[in-house]
Input
Amino acid sequence: MEHVMERFQRLPLGNICDANGKRGSMDPAIRPVDPSLHMVGRAYTVRCHPGDNLAIHKAITEAPDGSVLVIDAGGYTGGGHIGEIMCFACMQRGIRGLVIDGTCRDADDIQALGFPVFSRGFNPGGTVKETVGQTEIPIVCGGVPVRPGDLVVGNRDGVVVVAKENIEAVLEGAEAIARKEVRVLEELKQGRTTAEIYQFSKIL
Ligand SMILES: O=C([O-])CC(=O)C(=O)O
Ligand SMILES: [Mg+2]
Output
């Protein structure tokens, strides 16, 4: 699986998404704290009560290393559910990154840690720690259904989710698309147009 993760990490998200039937891309309002970071791992899912981060603390203690925490916080933007402390705790547990349908805080410190976080922006406001919530259940995050063990890939383009049953097929399809794009770029350098290469001249 490690090799598979490395291969995914090298691929453009657009190629992965196209090979995934053009599906699986989250709402682009979910943005990386640090656009230079790449993230890939298996989803460990969390549903927390909006404005309450206790379920995320639970997930940090439970998730196996190599996981990406994918958190449905109901799109709540009234407080920062995660910050520097929780991201550092994730790193110590071998968690590869975190996606939250909600806001985080401590942006400068998270960036300094080099831990990949994707969120609906920031809010320095606090959250309560009262409701245990649920982990390892099917959720929706950024408009995309996510189940435990699905593959999650993120970079400055956004976040794409690949169903666990399709990981191998999507990887091979995305690599084939990437190879084809190398050939297209070569043909463009030789002076052909996209209309010629893609044979749009029949309809354009
Ligand atoms: O403690 C919190 O609620 C979130 C936070 O700021 C941190 O993890 O550093
Ligand atoms: Mg903090």
The mean pLDDT is 97. Residues 2-170 form a domain with the Glucose Oxidase; domain 1 fold (CATH 3.50.30.40). The pocket of magnesium ion (ligand 2) is lined by residues 83-85, 106 (CB under 6 Å). Residues 47 and 134 are 5 Å apart (CA to CA).
